Amino acid sequence: MTETLIDFDEVLEKFDPAMGLEVHVELNTNTKMFCGCPAVFGGAPNTNVCPTCLGLPGAMPAVNAKAVESAIRIGLALNCEIAEWCRFARKNYFYPDMPKNFQTSQYDEPIAFEGYLDVEVEGETFRIEIERAHMEEDTGKATHVGGSTGRIQGADYSLIDYNRAGIPLIEIVTKPILNTGAKAPLVAKAYVSALRDLVKALGVSDVRMDQGSMRCDVNLSLAPKGSDKLGTRSETKNVNSLRSVERAVRYEMSRHAGILLSGGSVLQETRHFHESDGTTSSGREKSDAEDYRYFPEPDLVPVAPSREWVEELRATLPEPPAERRVRLQADWGFTDLEMRDAINADAIDLIEETVAAGAAPQAARKWWLSEISRRANEAGVDLVDAGVSPAQVAEVQKLIDAGTLNDKLARQVFDGLFAGEGTPAEIIEKRGLALVSDDGPLLAAIEDALAAQPDIAEKIRGGNVKAAGAIVGAVMKATRGQADAARVQQLIVERLS
Amino acid sequence: MTGGIGAQIRPTRLSAMPELSRDEVRHLADLARIDLSDAELEHLAPQLNVILESVASIQGVAGPDVPATSHPIPMTNVFREDVVVPGLTPQQALAAAPAQEDDKFSVPRILGDEQ
Ligand SMILES: [Zn+2]
User: Fold this and answer.
1) Which of A58, A97, B41, B65 is the most buried (most CB within 10 A)?
2) Domain B14-65, architecture per CATH
3) Interfacial A residues in 296-325 facing B (CB < 8 Å)
4) Distance in Å, CA A55 to ligand 1 centroid
5) pLDDT of residue B8 exceeding 50
6) Going from the N-terminus, what domains does chain A have, and what CATH number goes with each?
């Protein structure tokens, strides 16, 4: 089906967007939520399973204390209240990714509720209100076999690996995010980014969106401009990069507007996001499958964290990312604009690690925000996945500082790094990129250039130092860019004075 | 077990137990993926109503001073340390599976209700 998409500016003239973001964070505990199986996914199939996570008769769950601790710390970091008493519930549904025929989750008694996270977009602060953060377990992984597409439609049968079933998850749900207007896509991205930074700082999850340890569902609706009613929402599932969060919001705004302006009504449905072209397509419609018949899990007793425990955990919270940024900006001497660009590019951690590896802050900033950002954009990946590590950037910069490389040659070293040709030193060796540090060949090239352009030589002799630029250019050309331009300039002046 | 939001949210206490209609029983059967014929629905609906009436009579006895509970023993915070314990081998895990392939459980294709 072809969608009618409305230009983003026109959407904003006529509608106000409302968003709701649901983020699942997979905890990095040693064991699963309710059994002692390793919480490791991706190994040989069905190697990390036991009677409990396979839902075999008679098996009894037991709550992982560390997972509860991590949930409380996430809640506290999100300025939430922590429940004094809460229970797990069974979410009943029939789908073979949960062998028990229910997922153990929390329903109306989340461990954490009523919090907020402030995010900054282009100098403006938005307070994202958190409705709840609750504990649940991840599901198994189904592979659909047969059919032409490998997707669920048309599959002949499915194969299930339960290694992931039971890995602790925290689901963090926002209240409706209103009044963001044109910044809605950026606010959504900034929220997920800030949440990721926060959870990462807590050390309770790898929060790798590309690996599924952090997953985002984007709910979006449009209301006629100035109306205080919420429109019908769509729920776009598994939007798995920061860039995709922004794109999914933008696309759904344009798609909803297309439907509404043509007099149609938006279907309340699940949508799938497609990384390849940034579009969404219809998944299953919400139906009686939504009737999960939640009830309290009778095999587990309530969780009632003592206030003493909660306060102990509050004392373990790390420096909030927003405060950390203020500190880093001061340490690095970045202007507000430089800092904002670095935040928007999601480069703060990368710059920090590059500085820690020995590079000057401005040099680290320059490489991440220019050369590497450009390539990440071209490849359509997040900066962190661009294929270059902070240690490598620091190494390249060290070689520049030592006079082995200039910026131009350094870019060629990055070419090699992106192509996976080895370490910077290996690439310099293989590609023959080092600057000509020996004055001999430079002097020879200068002689040739002066001989070829006697009028220029005359001008320089006459005191016109600027004219040396033409000779420097000729020498750079002769050495295929591998000369240190400043050194060449110096040699020319010495030669002619 | 008092205080907190948990104390405020309890399973709904029904004052008068309504009759289950045949359509409601059909809906429940659909949710449970049980295929019932009209005759079976006719047969089962009154039986379920008998069970509901029995529950209603218990609820009549339990006044507002008797809190609803989800667990027979009033205890909280039964936790397990985050320590790995050996589980099953894939062979053990799959021993009772009706079908398997590549150490995975093979299940019939699933239509329409992807999670
Ligand atoms: Zn297990």
Assistant:
1) A97
2) Orthogonal Bundle (1.10)
3) 296-298, 300-305
4) 9
5) no
6) 8-313 (no CATH), 321-431 (no CATH), 439-496 (1.10.10)
